[in-house]
Design brief:
The protein is 34% helix and 16% strand. The longest helix has 17 residues. It has twelve helices and 15 strands. The chain is elongated and about 65 Å long. By secondary structure, the chain is α/β, with parallel strands linked by helices. 37% of the residues are buried. Helix 7 runs antiparallel to helix 8 and helix 7 packs across helix 11. Keywords: Hydrolase, Nuclease. GO terms for molecular function: 5'-3' exonuclease activity; 5'-flap endonuclease activity; DNA binding.
């Protein structure tokens, strides 16, 4: 049986349109019997339908019937950084542009990294995201809340998104990427298209005719769509090869070393050629185990470091079996009437908190 963990935030709370049985001054965090799982959305009522299913791609466009429209996933964590520095101002700026210029009234589901989300991958590879600063404890721009307690920044983020009628999903023990990959499969199974709003290249492994990305471009201060055509033009291969390719060349941003770390002559050009020929990392490794697949240095590396590459695959592959389910309420047109007031108040609050950082006067978010 699930228990509700209530956190009362300062100010007037505008109830979101996703399933909610709480009162109008509360933010609800639901924790299941499994301590590794937590959803920052209320339990659905018995009458509400729960959607589930596997990946099933369908073609669609925004002008087609509602069933064929887009559902956006907002990857919150990377938007909360200005370069490598945690920043609520960055989140506010990108959220404002996203809601006003990209998603408009299309359904939006926001996803946040769960507590201990990287733990599984770090056990496999200690260097995985080891250099990243944890945003949830970064509160330098926030001094006090209603009870005189220093809050977590995510409390403010959850409140702002809730007032903009965007459900916020957080599953403890899992990174946001895995939750998005799981829910995206369920969305596709219902006949919708998926658009993932994130700068994270890990999502490129999901791109298809029905899965796009929209990425923030800091240098231009706007969002830009990234499609299957863009991927093919950029990499000269299909997204199915993306994961296998990164397992070989590594991912410096995520702290995943490539095979060049061990075999300097084994570069991206060689890796791309082999992956394009064999289709996937596992097929390539199986072939290399029984016959020659390339030049001696590549052949020897693939045989000698097969386990190393398979570990990279397990670290970089997005999981699609997270214990999280999609609710019908998340797929309806988003009510955006509160956006302007909510975001204006949020920006004003951030400016006031910045000005009063060294003041003893309490700062409240009254959005």
């Amino acid at each position: 049986m699930r228990t509700l963990e209530m956190s009362v935030l300062a100010g007037t709370y505008i109830p979101p349109r996703f399933p909610c049985s709480c009162n109008s001054t509360s933010s609800v965090s639901c924790k299941s019997k499994n301590p590794a799982t937590a959803l920052i959305v209320p339990n659905p009522k018995k009458s509400e339908k729960v959607l589930s299913g596997s990946f099933h791609q369908t073609h669609g466009a925004q002008s087609l019937p509602p069933k064929m429209k887009r559902v956006f996933f907002l990857d919150v964590n990377p938007l909360c950084y200005e370069g490598s520095k945690p920043s609520l101002h960055s989140f506010a700026r990108w959220l404002s542009l996203f809601l006003s210029q990209v998603s408009l009234t299309d359904p939006v589901i926001a996803v946040i990294d769960g507590e201990r989300g990287s733990e599984y991958r770090r056990k496999l590879l200690p260097s995985y995201k080891a250099h990243r600063k944890k945003f949830t404890k970064h509160v330098s721009t926030l001094r006090k809340f209603s009870g005189g307690h220093v809050p977590r920044s995510h409390q403010v983020i959850n409140d702002v998104l809730g007032k903009c009628n965007v459900p916020v999903i957080k599953v403890d023990g899992h990174e946001a990427d895995d939750v998005v990959a799981t829910l995206a499969g369920q969305v596709l199974n219902k006949g919708f298209r998926v658009v993932i709003a994130s700068p994270d290249k890990d999502f490129k492994q999901l791109i298809s005719e029905d899965v796009q990305m929209v990425m923030p471009l800091p240098e231009l201060q706007r969002w830009s769509f990234y499609t299957l055509r863009h991927y093919r033009d950029q990499y000269n291969c299909d997204p199915q090869s993306d994961l296998s390719l990164r397992c070989i060349v590594g991912d410096e941003v995520d702290g995943v070393p490539g095979i060049q770390h061990l075999v300097p002559s084994f570069g991206r050009k060689t890796a791309l050629k082999l992956i394009k020929k064999h289709g996937s990392l596992e097929t390539l490794l199986n072939a290399a185990a029984v016959r020659t697949v390339g030049r001696p240095y590549a052949q020897d590396a693939l045989k000698k470091y097969a386990d190393y590459l398979r570990r990279n695959y397990e670290v970089l592959a997005l999981k699609r079996d997270v214990n999280v389910q999609l609710y019908e309420e998340w797929l309806v047109e988003r009510d955006n009437h509160n956006d302007t007031v909510t975001l204006s108040t949020f920006f004003r609050y951030l400016e006031e908190s910045k000005e009063l950082t060294h003041s003893t006067r309490p700062i409240f978010y009254n959005g």
